[in-house]
Amino acid sequence: MPGSGTDSSKAWAGGGPLVVLVEPQLGENIGAAARAMGNFGLSRLRIVNPRQGWPDPRAHVFCAGADRILEAATLHPDLRDALDGISFAVAATARERGMAKPVMGADTTAAEARTRLAAGEDVALVFGRERTGLYTEEVSLCDVILTLPVNPAFASLNLGTCVAVVAYEWYKAETGGALPFAPPERSVLAQKQDLFAFFDHVERELAEAAFFRSPEKQPSTIRNIRNIFHRIALSKQDLATLHGMVTALVEGRAGREARKAAHNEAAAARRGKTLAPQRSVRTLEDE
């Protein structure tokens, strides 16, 4: 059943680039990263030498239902081993490393990954430790550097957040930015005769309420009121609601109560007519 944006009846999106977490310090952050992967259609996870061991129950708590990603994750002793079978590796870092490597944003990385995966290559997105990030030696093992346009005075991102931003750009590129749902269709637009009937209703009740205090200004005031509703592009349902609002304002509470009482009396009268007369039944004791 759907809940909080989760619907287990729908197919699970997977594939995409591989995610590598190098020596993550907290199981909570591994879980948060797996959750972000699940949110944005990434399913393959490799973990390098996690500091608190593996498996880690805290990761399952923080993955919020993305357990399948954690259960399929593989454990590796170092980054070299984790990059086995990878053709193109991307090193995520917030610091300039002085290396002659291309530097890409998350959107450019997503586009590059899609192109390479389509060509049969395998791609890895490599994320470093929470406190120190990737070591320079580890960055040197990758083909390009991935960085984000963050506040230079506070550039350190939480591991799960960093994975989420990159995974979001991947999934946006993969799906063409298609949103999961669209606004509901509006009811049919009101025809002019429906709109004119509403104008008559409003103007009649405004006149009864002495709204038009200046006869000279009444025509221009009426035009302004009509133009307000013309700009809204009202539907038939909108007009029905507005008619009801005007009627309720005119009647007031006393009028509504009187109408309700009259309705109840009429209903009671109809019920009385349908009741069959009761026939008395004689028993042996009555004899």
UniProtKB/TrEMBL annotation:
<keyword id="KW-0489">Methyltransferase</keyword>
<comment type="subunit">
    <text>Homodimer.</text>
</comment>
<comment type="similarity">
    <text>Belongs to the class IV-like SAM-binding methyltransferase superfamily. RNA methyltransferase TrmH family.</text>
</comment>
<keyword id="KW-0808">Transferase</keyword>
<dbReference type="InterPro" id="IPR029028">
    <property type="entry name" value="Alpha/beta_knot_MTases"/>
</dbReference>
<dbReference type="GO" id="GO:0106339">
    <property type="term" value="F:tRNA (cytidine(32)-2'-O)-methyltransferase activity"/>
</dbReference>
<feature type="domain" description="tRNA/rRNA methyltransferase SpoU type">
    <location>
        <begin position="18"/>
        <end position="168"/>
    </location>
</feature>
<comment type="function">
    <text>Catalyzes the formation of 2'O-methylated cytidine (Cm32) or 2'O-methylated uridine (Um32) at position 32 in tRNA.</text>
</comment>
<dbReference type="InterPro" id="IPR001537">
    <property type="entry name" value="SpoU_MeTrfase"/>
</dbReference>
<keyword id="KW-0963">Cytoplasm</keyword>
<dbReference type="GO" id="GO:0002128">
    <property type="term" value="P:tRNA nucleoside ribose methylation"/>
</dbReference>
<dbReference type="GO" id="GO:0005829">
    <property type="term" value="C:cytosol"/>
</dbReference>
<keyword id="KW-0819">tRNA processing</keyword>
<protein>
    <recommendedName>
        <fullName>tRNA (cytidine/uridine-2'-O-)-methyltransferase TrmJ</fullName>
        <ecNumber>2.1.1.200</ecNumber>
    </recommendedName>
</protein>
<dbReference type="InterPro" id="IPR029026">
    <property type="entry name" value="tRNA_m1G_MTases_N"/>
</dbReference>
<keyword id="KW-0949">S-adenosyl-L-methionine</keyword>
<feature type="region of interest" description="Disordered">
    <location>
        <begin position="265"/>
        <end position="287"/>
    </location>
</feature>
<dbReference type="GO" id="GO:0003723">
    <property type="term" value="F:RNA binding"/>
</dbReference>
<dbReference type="GO" id="GO:0160206">
    <property type="term" value="F:tRNA (cytidine(32)/uridine(32)-2'-O)-methyltransferase activity"/>
</dbReference>
<dbReference type="Pfam" id="PF00588">
    <property type="entry name" value="SpoU_methylase"/>
</dbReference>
<dbReference type="InterPro" id="IPR004384">
    <property type="entry name" value="RNA_MeTrfase_TrmJ/LasT"/>
</dbReference>
